[in-house]
Amino acid sequence: MGVHAERRVHLPGPLHRGVQLVRPARDLHHARGHGRLLHQPRVRGTALSPAAAAVVALLAIEDLRVEYRTARGSSYAVDGVTLDVARGEILGLVGESGCGKTTLGRAIIRVLPRNARIAGGRIAFDGADLAALSEPEMARYRWREIAMVPQAAMDSLDPVYRLGDQFNEVLMITGGLTRAAAREQAVALCDLVGLDRRRLAAFPHELSGGMRQRAAIAMALALRPRLVLADEPVTALDVVVQHHILRRLRQLRAELRLAVILVTHDISVIAQTSDRMAVMYAGVIVEVGPTADVFARPLHPYTMGLQNSFPNLLRPQDTLIPIEGAPPDLLNPPRGCRFAPRCPFAVDRCRAD
Predict the structure, then answer these.
(1) Torsions phi, psi for 267 (to 5 deg)
(2) Helix/strand/coil percent split, the chain, to 5
(3) Of 94, 59, 66, whose CA–CA distance to 81 is shortest?
(4) SS3 state at 109
(5) How far is CA 214 from the centre of its chain?
(6) Of 97, 14, 141, whose CA–CA distance to 281 is shortest?
(7) Per-residue pLDDT tens over the stretch 177-209
């Protein structure tokens, strides 16, 4: 939809209707490609019922809410999220810092801070509701079925232990292997992620950022999980190392039939790596769809804003348009669409529904 008509523009086809244009006070975000703008969240493709999605998907999240209790009151960092991940799929989860991406990932494996709790919803992993499991039952899923690559690889590696000893701890204590078998498996994991096996004798501070990231990925794969939560796996790495890490992640997905939730604020990482993407804002999912479709025809203004705030290498002459303002305070979220206060397309309905 463009702004070429002075008062109205008509959308052809089955959705044919007049759309009142609102003249913004600042630069407009626009859809790259031939997209249609809709003022509400949209999920592309044929929607499955939650029960059907749970059967088809490896992971099916339904109406998940995560509450944080603070001195100022309660807020929901994840508020009614419904999402699914298929076997062998890379799902990109993108949004600004503070939108709830990391909280969603940590809720899946139930490692939330003390002041946070799952306040509602289901997390169905291969038919089992993780949200309803006891802690001993949940412990059997961590590492073995679902593993996490934390946001800062250096923070996830113990600085006073050699890398090989840290692999042994996971493989022997959690995996039940002998020391000899753990050593053999650690070498195989290093080969799998492209890390020189001699680095097993090194301390974390002796490794480069890319090596530490590969080590963190290898450790997450140690017990052959079916789902990996990768939280900002290439943040603070240069673009060349980023490319190598992301390419290896896709190769591992193919080799191990691995499902991955890739959490990032960098929409270009999503474009390079994921099969489908989910856009998250202020605790809610505003758009989900195949990555190529979302980039070609974004339906939500926030998705357009994320695209327009990143440079396009194919069109370097394009003007970058930042998303003005800041995300809302989740202690007192706005009515209606949570992006409405920052949206140049917002109308009264957006603030009321």
Answers:
(1) -70, -20
(2) 35, 20, 40
(3) 66
(4) coil
(5) 19
(6) 97
(7) 999 999 999 999 999 898 999 999 999 999 998
Torsion of CA 174, 176, 177, 178, to 10 degrees: 110
For residues 157 and 212, the answer to whether their CB atoms sit within 8 Å is yes
Rounded to the nearest angstrom, the gap between the alpha carbon of residue 36 and the centroid of all alpha carbons in its chain is 24
Task: Give me the residue spans of the domains in the chain.
Answer: 28-145+226-352, 152-224
- Contact 59/229 with Cβ under 8 angstroms? no
DSSP 272-325: HH-SEEEEEETTEEEEEEEHHHHHHS--SHHHHHHHHTS--TT-TTSPP----S
Beta strand ranges found along the chain (DSSP E) = 8-10, 18-20, 42-43, 59-70, 73-85, 90-94, 116-125, 128-129, 146-149, 227-231, 259-264, 276-281, 284-290
- Selection from 88, 67, 91, 87 nearest residue 79 by Cα: 67
Beta strand 8-10 pairing with 18-20: antiparallel
Q: How many CB atoms lie within 10 A of CB 248?
A: 17
Compute φ and ψ for 78, nearest 5 degrees.
Answer: -125, 120
Cβ burial, residue 174 (10 Å; 0-12/13-18/19+): middle
What average pLDDT does range 107-116 have in this prediction? Answer: 96
28-145+226-352 falls under which CATH superfamily?
A: P-loop containing nucleotide triphosphate hydrolases (3.40.50.300)
pLDDT in tens, 195-249: 999 999 999 999 998 899 899 999 999 999 999 999 988 877 788 888 888 888 8
Q: How far apart are CA 188 and CA 205, in angstroms?
A: 22
Please state the φ and ψ torsions of residue 11, each to the nearest 5 degrees: -95, 120
Please give the Cα distance from 80 to 86 (Å, whole number): 20
Dihedral of CA atoms 148, 154, 158, 161 in degrees, nearest 10, equals 120
Q: List C-alpha distances in Å: 254 to 150, 250, 257.
A: 22, 6, 5
Return the sign of the alpha-carbon dihedral for residues 81, 303, 4, 344.
positive
Q: What is the pLDDT of residue 320?
A: 82
| Alpha-carbon separation of residue 72 from 102, 115, 145, 263, 282 (angstroms) | 22, 12, 37, 28, 18
